[in-house]
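Q: I have two molecules that I believe assemble together. Could you output structure tokens for the complex as a whole instead of separate predictions?
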Amino acid sequence: MKVTIAGIGMTKFGELWDKSVFDLAEEASSRAIEDSKIDSKKIEAVFVANMLASKLDGQDHFGAVVTSILGLSVPAVRVEGACASGGLAMHAAILAIMSGMYETVLVLGVEKMTDPSSCEITTALMGAGSEEERLSGLTFPALYALMARAHMEEFGTTREQMAEVAVKNHFHASLNQHAHFPFPISVEKVLRSPSISFPFTLFDSSPISDGAAAVILTKKSVKKGIAITGSAVATDTIGLTSRKSLITLAATKIASRKALKQAGISLSDIDVLEVHDCFTIAEIMAMEDLGFCEKGEGGAFIASGQTRLGNKMPVNTSGGLKACGHPVAATGIKQIVEITEQLRGNALNRQVRNAKVGLTHNVGGTGATVVVHVLTK
Amino acid sequence: MNSPVQNWRLTKNIHTKVGKVGVVVSWTKVYVAPSGFEHETPYYVAIVEFTKGNRITAQVVDCESDPQIGDKVVTVIRRIGKPKAAEVIQYGIKVKPNAKQK
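A: Yes, here they are, computed for all two components at once.
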């Protein structure tokens, strides 16, 4: 697949009370266009990932919102797949280029989440689950807590091991100026923070964030362009109760095997990865399901420090969803932005040395949609 | 916004789902709730399995301490959440500890 990342851009992630969803869309898009050094008039299509503007801002028709902002009259579509919206929009944009119809496209992920109360946003996010789950009073922390509880029961995964995920990702975020929480925390701080949904505390959970991220994709040859060599999507049942297993995301396995095959690489070729750590248990399960360790050993694998910057296999150098922040539809694009920075060698004090191949793993709902991309220098 | 027809669809077969005994497969205790459930926090929600692979999610009620994985529970009809002023009262399935087990 001859698709190259020509430009990247993102806003700061966080509680950006002075910025609307439209301001965020404009900021990230213009940064990506500027970074690409491609004239915006050369953009032939726009793919916008957004989950909640319809509910929270009353704004449907988001594709045309973005072309209005950019002063373009090209085709524009909004792509929605809950927290995997960003990854899905990337996939759709890549297909559009591979079809031969377009040469250069913009992909934008944007979300404005901090205006409503935590109760309202918790309700809105349950749109990513099943009807049965909504009627059971479940929330997203609660759904992942159900998976965590099963994982603890079956493998003896501990609260301390889960807390290590948050500690590592906060350390990485402390090196990222765009992060929502650019400061380190301790295991004790995670364990002693307020309960959200047993066994999770506040610091097991990714935050409610505002933010946007954008990339320019092209099939033209670009100086120092980063190639997309794998792009795969898999789906699973929308609700947890229809799954064979609570302790694995089958769609992660399917999408990652497919993306690696497309790229013609194996796991050992990967130098850096961004995985979907919406809750601490999610990163543990992601490492297992991607195949970096055996099922059940994810907690010990992360606690060993191997996935911390400076060690063998750095995971979530941006700070992940946990500490870089999680503006839901922006997350999948932010992962691409972070890996691109790493492969370009521009990640400053969080640079992974000699990073040549990177992988992104973006999950929607409790794993009903999973998108995996492979990027190569 | 829940409506009478939506409720009818959700509850038309509810009588076939009551009194079933199942086993807790996993559970959580919710402290931060979605709209309509705020007044019930903290509350328990479990995944309950009846025959192999036949599972539901449901709130656990009438339960004095944390449920345990493997506990037997029985399905009951209860009010679901708290309706807003113009909404109808919703009923649905919850589970409670199975007294016959003890």
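A: One point stands out. The first strand of chain A starts at residue 3 and ends at 10.
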